[in-house]
Design a protein that fits this description.
Radius of gyration of chain B: 19 Å
Shape of chain A: globular
Order of helices and strands of chain B: EEEHHEHEHEHEHEHEHHEH
Oligomer: heterodimer
Strand order of the largest sheet of chain B: 8-7-6-5-4-3-10-9
Number of strands of chain B: 10
Strand content of chain B: 5-15%
Strand order of the largest sheet of chain A: 12-11-10-13-15-14
Helix content of chain A: 25-40%
CATH architecture of the largest domain in chain A: 2-Layer Sandwich
Distance between the termini of chain A: 66 Å
Number of strands of chain A: 27
CATH superfamily of chain B: Dihydropteroate synthase-like
Bound molecules: FE2/S2 (inorganic) cluster
Distance between the termini of chain B: 20 Å
Strand content of chain A: 15-25%
CATH superfamily of the largest domain in chain A: ATPase, nucleotide binding domain
Shape of chain B: globular
Number of helices of chain B: 10
Mean pLDDT of chain B: 96
Radius of gyration of chain A: 27 Å
Chain lengths: 638, 322
Amino acid sequence: MEKFQVKFMPDQQVIEVEQGTSLLKAASQAGIFIKSSCGGKGTCGACKVTVISGEAKSERTGNLSPEQLSRGVRLSCHTFVEGDLTVEVPPESRLQAHQVLLEDANAALLTETSKDLLTYYGYHPLARKVNIRCSEPTLTDNAGDWTRLSIELKRVLQSDKPLTIPLSVLQTLPETLRQAHWDLSVILTDLESGYTVLHVEPANDRPCYGLAIDVGTTTVVVYLVDLDSGEIVDKQGSYNKQAQFGDDVISRIVYAVDSTENMAEIQKAVVDTVNVLIEGILERQSLTSQNIASAVIAGNTTMSQLFLGINPRYIRLEPYIPTVNSTPAVSAREIGLRLLPEALIHTYPSVASYVGGDIVSGALATDMANSDEIILFIDIGTNGEIVLGNKDWLVSCACSAGPCFEGGGILFGMRAMPGAIERVDIDPESLDVKLKVVGKIAPVGICGSGLVDCLAKLRKAGIIDRAGNFQLEHPSQSARIRATEDDKEFVLAWAHQAGGDKDIVISENDVKNLIRAKGAIYAGIRSLLQTVALEIDMIERIVIGGGFGNYLNVHDSVEIGLLPDLPQEKFEFIGNSSVKGARLALLSQKAWNEAADLARKMTYIELSIGTTFMDEFVSALFLPHTDLSLFPSVEGTF
Amino acid sequence: MAVALVKERYQSKVGEVVIGATAAEGGTRTSVVKVGGDSTLPFLHFEGKVENRAAIALEVTDVPPAWSDTVKGQYGDVINDPVAWAKKCVEEYNADMIYLKLIGANPEGENRSPEECAKVVKDVLAAVGVPLIVAGCEDPEKDNEVLAAVAEATSGENLLIGIAEQDNYKSITAAAMVHKHNLIARSPLDINICKQLNILISEMGLPLNRIVIDPMIGGLGYGIEYAYSIMERARLGSLANDKMLSMPMICTVGYEANRAKEANASAEEFPGWGDLNDRAILWEALTAAGLLQVGASILLMRNPAAVKLVQQNIADLMEMNA
Ligand code: FES
């Protein structure tokens, strides 16, 4: 095969690829990540690039207009290299590092759970460091190096648990011991099943660290945790580089199972994501990978399987079977993570195909499995996992709310970052609009909390009816309500206010998407309650997790029927519960064991069986709900 | 041993809707039809009150319909003249109401103007004394115009007009409100959408006792069981005091039953199915009979022979069983 050079602008990045390589792939090889929401099927149009010069052949042009085509705009996933090329990647096609949930305090309207679970479970990290001094060998004391080391270790650890050492560590052991003059720091795993020596070095009192990692579909967050003190020393987050293969787990599965290369590629993408975060942290803290002895990873079932390179094909095929719920620990070396090569990576156990380790981890962090009270734990995210229960029973489901609340699938949707509209006020008579924008700058889009607020306000002002239909004949006759070729929309900000050339609008399609998303979550809650024959008001606490949860206004959410109409004081906010649970396990063997128990105890409810969910879903496709008596505090306000 | 009769106590009842208005009430009808009002499950006279008999409306179209010969044959020539046809339905077949379907308005067909349509309605009103149900041609935009014109031209007659649906209910609801008619609210076999539509309509200000639910039934063998259970849920809802489900129900029996192959294919074609005439009659009659058991209040029918059977069935069911 002939090779050609592709030059990416404005980065000036040049890469040599084989003839027939897609531009999407070439860009990724050049380290430029292009959005590909549909996973390269040529349907989403997110992967647009402009071919400035050179030869490329397009197999699909999607819904690109003739005008765009004449300018050289192409779908990079279906455009293939046929000669030397120069390609421009416009900013809107790039995967951008966006704000990732790191601080729980950010705009939180709910207070965070405060119970110190670590004290409850007891402090006992999954890895630790011990300083020992071995006696030097002599002609009369001629035991082997490992025997010498292990005897001393057992004495210091005061335990009969088995103690092992992998070959790789053994191979360098003799020199290490002697260079250190038998004065040693030993890093080892400390698990119920025994100890494994991960690393031996000259005695020092550098702390030893672990990582708590939340692998989300959209974002990845890493906490650096001091295993001696239990302190979170640093945090880092970014988007999941797998996003170049699709926005949601389904399109990523489709991509991954297409070929072994794809599988390797998608696994590498997430490992790279984590490695970049680790490197950032290490650099900031002036540490090396030698200092990191352990990691606990929490992610949904698909993320866990992709991380470990396990074929995820059957997760999405009926009857939706994951390969494994509880994975054995693997070494950093096997996965390619930048930790001590022999350090163990522990993956949180899953419950089922769509209720994964991130939710088990979150449930552990809420402590619901030890509670007398009935707790509802909701992760308001794309997958919309919900857990209900207490110390006696737990049921869970995933209601696939979609990415709406994270700004996905909404015309002007965006994450909560500067320029995002977060509050909306609409005068019911004149339909004049007042906006609150994150960072107090000109608006560029609208974030989840803004969308929730907007929905309630549109309804209050009579711009939409309870089913989300736009009312073009609104008595105000405001120019803000208008019909476009294939949709109806409301202008939130005129182009001149938005500092751009486009009006910022919310369309009827957006509104219906939001109603479906909120309907799915509420229907999930109701379906779980029905399974255990309980009423809404029997829920004693509602714990909200997930990135969007941070910015959520409970009052607005109840008003549109996203959350149950219960007193404000029952709501609690937990932030990124997944990474919290990961840290907990990292620091407490008991908590880690309990997580396994928790995953086994959680009953998964398959929502696609029977009529309950569908029925509840349709009745929730209304503002706030078809059964208005479920929302007594809202009933009069519309 | 004595057996105590188990009687269910219901909190509420189905709302009552009155269709048509006599001269004293501002209209020109010689009789009005009341439907709904039941405070029990269908025909359980021993538990509550079965307030009103289910009514049958015979379908008349403004231009000759493409119906099967088995049905058309029973009407003869009048099929070309809505006025004579309506008369025949009332005088010969004892229809409680006329269901006038304005298929001539269809823009793909005759594309009659709203005024022409309104005139047909007026003519039929002048010819018969029973109340009228008027529906359009199923082209939402055209129907909005046609029904607005009909509602205006027949102000005071207290018609039952349709069809309001979730994405198109505003103008027809407004027409019903302004000119004081009753409204058919149609939802696609979904109790929640049914309820949502009733909420949307009533929030525009149309009183609940002016709404009739059309659950969009399926005919015998073609989804009748969905309709059956949806209607049962609606009835149970109204008895449990769910106001937004407490409307009487109307069923398009004639249309659905006569769509079935069983009501059209000859015995030569399907020897195992037996005689077509009997089969077609029974297909419609059984569809109606089944739905009566879950609270159908108005049956929109076509086949006169089937109507006769159903009329007898209703009379039998109205006998006290307490
Ligand atoms: S169109 Fe190329 S990735 Fe979706």
